[in-house]
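Technical note accompanying the year-one report. For the benefit of new consortium partners, we illustrate the data format agreed upon in the data management plan: each record pairs a sequence with a structure-token string. No post-processing was applied to the example shown here.
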Amino acid sequence: MKYFCSNTIFQQAPCYRDVLLVTAFLFLCFTGFAQAPQLKFLHLNTEHGLPDGTVRSVTQDKYGYIWLGTQYGLCRYDGYRLTSFFHNKTDTGSLAGNFIWSGFTDRAGDVWTGNDRYLSKYRYDKNDFINYACPFNAAVSKIAEDEAGKLWLATSGGLMRFDKQTGHFIHYREHTNATVRKACSVRINDLYLDKEKGLIYLATHSGFKVFDYHNENILPPFVNSNYDPYGINETIITTVTKDKKGLVWFGCGFINTVLARWDPATNAIQYYHDFTDKSRGWLENRIISLFTDRDGNIWAGGLTSSLSLYLPGKDYFHHYQNDALLKSSIAGTNISAIYQDGAGMIWVGSEGYGVDRFHPENTMFTSFQPQAAVQPSLLHDWGRAAIEDSRGNIWFGTSKGISVYDPAKTLYQNYFNNEKNPAQLSFNSIRSFAEDKKGNIWIGTGNGLNRFDPATGHFRIYNYADSLKSYFVWSLLVTNNGELYVGGTGGLQRYDNGLDQFRDVVDDPVINKKFRFNVRNLFEDSRQGYWIGFYDGGLVYYNPAQKKLQQYRHSEKDTNTLCNDFVTSVAEDKKGIIWIATRDGLNSLDTKTQRFRLFTTARGLPSNKTSGLRVDASNRLWIATGNGLSVLDPERKFFRNFDMSDGLPINEFNDQTAAGTRDGKLIYPTFRGFIMFNPVTVMKKKLRSPQVYVSAIKVFNKPLSLYTNAEEIKNLTLRYHQNFFSLELTGLNYENPEKITYAYKLEPFNKEWVYTKERNITYTNIPGRQYKFFYKATTDPSDWNVPVHEIDIYVGTVFYKTTWFMLLVIVLIAGGVYGIYSYRLRQTRSLHRLQLQATRLEKDKTEIQYQNLINQFNPHFLFNSLTSLNSLIYENRELASEFLEQLSAVYRYLLTHKETQLVTLESETEFVKHYISLLKTRFEKGLNVTIDIPANLLSKKIVPVTFQLLIENALKHNIVDEASPLHIVFTADERYLYVTNNLQKKGFVETSNRKGLESLQTLYKYLSSLPLLIDQNPAEFIIRVPLI
């Protein structure tokens, strides 16, 4: 490490002491990582859709999309999908060239790209590019923007300035100032625009230059060539950046680059040779990219040294390199671009391996896995047991031996069984650890028990010869009073330290019988009670002091039991509740009430296969599962789940127990090594609410042509035939997009929010009307306190379903109906008039016929009556006089009611009595007429002379003599007058025209709704006349 001073500031070179003091002060003030964080790199390459594996530029636009410039096309990435843009010779709106050197987002949020000979701007509303040809066919390698909105370009043809308003370039190789012209006409590899000082730091092919862009001049060299062993003023400068302290960093030299750090305030320079380490094979390494993140950390990308992070506390660079055994290691070695997005995610573009991304502060889980680049490292991926010993070392038990990790030295020491040293370890499959009061480490394996003495470094192996019944030791427990318990295939045993042998737990054979199952887990609670979990035998609680033994088993018939008899882990929380992990769910047991509670996937667990229970300082319960790590809050209401998207090396945890460290960290074995984390740090990480957009709109699964890009749509109008549409939601979370949950509703179509992991929301056959589409997204499904976005959507209605058309149809139908009604009304009225006329004519005809009938009857009746009167005059003058009076009464009635339409039964009855008297004179005992009509019906009405006509009709058609008298009976009810006569028909009726009763029937048809009915049987003839 060397320091130099420029003679423009200092008069003499021996100023090292002052410079060292200043530099030391800067180190103390510098903020950054104290030690290198373990980074988890997420990969994006050609397998995911990149058109080319070399990514030279990364930028983020105003919506949050990431734009990647490759050697063959430009890509936009939203966390789910890559959309590529290419040059098309037949399309002037396409990308000007496929080889993208640089990318930049200006303060308006527009994306600019630099390629061979062109500067291109993307237009969101048209989804195309405006291309500007660079002077001298220069390739644009870097773009920056000043406070006036002007773009400054580092190009292969020198420094240029671009006016976005006019589209004009200014090239400084044509500047009037010779110094500016010389410095700015060579190839510019990189630039950094310092708005605070109005300077641009130029990394050129002819040295490091400082350009005052306000005054358009080059500042004098700050390093005296006599004290410049690396030729800062003339050599190739590859890249440049500025940190938060105002220090400028740049790479010197095309091969075997030395990194320089310059303090403009003091002209102090420090050189770093970390990138030319011969032991790493970096003899021809070159620093290609430098970047300062938002926290002031300096990141360097090398040609062969991959990615490096400056650690100010140690004043050196930590190098992140690809490791063939670590999937989460960085993919490439040649790092050409480094960029940090709005969420703090850092993107690293490489040559041939695409782009990697990581979040430097969100590495919640430290992973311990086998590494090819670091030896020794963890022996094997399959982690099975862990423990932190009293000296702070972490013991990792794997399927191939033990790796002891020293956190202070970050070094491993491995122990494993081999033929050369069979006494080192009895078996390599490690299952359990425990440390006794003396500091000895006990190791349970798949074939025996081992004790390691740290003082001597020797192993003592225990087996059947030492009374150990278990060849497979699942669990070890050192109690608070120092006793060692061993659980395994041979049941539960206690170690006798004096005899160095293993004994039964107690001398009681009845109790010992309970412990002879395959013991899987051992735990001591706060009351010095022991909980023994069995392989398939449930759970047993044993308290030696209280001599209490209680067994818990699963029962299908009782819900207040263990959910499963395969117990993998037991823990006690700070309230004394016992927690039991099983192969089929998680149980809690309140020992006071002896009540169990069950927790499964239905309540939020990611899997029912549970193990590795640990309770942290805040009384949160941590659970390893078959599908990630889970934590249950202290109120025991909500689970928060973690998976690979959160930094876990794998989602599946095995059935082994977890361990804790003295500083509160937790260690879990997995099928891909071990993880260690601080629960406080993990729970402090806030799940960031993602930006969310409607990123695409389709109708019948085809993209809808819009007046602007979908992200800007606030109002959407669809025609009636476009009511089958879908909206694509995109939530931007590049760290773990799988965590995003969406919610949406289309009011009033959807009454409630719909929650889904699906991004494509489809609606079919939507009725035409106005709608509001609401949508939101979160990475924490338990917290929906996130911004809600909306789009007004109008779906048109087919013309025959529109309101105006319906009204028109209603009016037309109403008019038509009214027209038809009017026409029918007129027709009906006309028909009624005709029918009325016909009815009147018919009635008149009937009345005429009726009158004719009466008129026919009167002469005939008068003739018969006069004949009878003539006989009486000679025989009995007094009777003749009486006969004449009755005859006069009959004709008086006929004349009185000649024009009357109806008469009462009472008046008709009085009339017919006179008529019957006249007939009795004629027929004497040959005629018998009976009238039996109730008095309450005498007010009913009938047609005048109905009685007379019906009697006359009976006389006309029947034989009347004393030998066989004719009986006529008149009766009535509420509806009818009944006229009945016995049937004794004449053989021939001279005066019958068969019209009398028909005329009477027709007349009554017009007067009553009831018909006049005529009926007969062999004995009687019956006529029913309706009463009116």
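Partners are asked to follow this layout when depositing records. The radius of gyration is 57 Å.
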